[in-house]
Amino acid sequence: MNDQLRLHGFNNLTKSLSFNIYDICYTQTEKERQEYIAYIDELYNAERLTAILNNVVDIIGANVLNIARQDYEPEGASVTMLIAEHEMPPSEEFTAEKPGPLKDSVVGHLDKSHVTVHTYPESHPYGGISTFRADIDVSTCGLISPLRALNYLIHSFESDIVVMDYRVRGFTRDVDGVKHYIDHDINSIQNYLTEDTRNAYQMIDVNVYQENTFHTKMILKDFELDNYLFGEGVKSLSLEQRTEIEQKLKKEMLEIFYSRNMP
To answer: Catalytic residue at 155?
Structure first.
């Protein structure tokens, strides 16, 4: 929508960002596996996840109405926030198709919406691979897109693989009664990522423009084995062990990235 367009009533569009991140690790022993899960469970407990979502709410320009959070046994956590609008409408700065900040406080116009995060630590029964997944949903009503929080979220987690879905649903009417199914320009989620993020990841898009549905997958380009070992590190491994572990890790990452099992 341009600045001259006048709406009949409230902007009824709903914008939803589903954001999944994966952190992959190799744990050589059962003790290391338990230590990794405990480390992840502490790093991404409900308290820290609440702090991350509070910053997301600041970035997209909302007020927190209610917070529900829970740590689970033996591991995992969930946080849900109900959020509401500010009084001031957003400037063009907050609706443009460009990357948002890593952390900032902005003012925007939102109706009752929500942000949620759920964590899922898991491990292979005998192969040494452990993974951590965080599912984050940011749903807003009105002018501002939750894509503004994307860069901050990516940098808040150790993200080997990122899967993002963005959809604008419903419609809103102008004063002449004409329906509008989207109120901002977008041809790819990638346009909302900073240059350093785009350079660090290999990315693919699957977009359905006529449905205002956008999908982007990201996987880290650089692979340093030491970054994926939870324990003594590369120096304690033979060349044969390094090669075997690297193959396992890369296979795991590609299977998650392409959503299919590989031989």
So the answer is: no
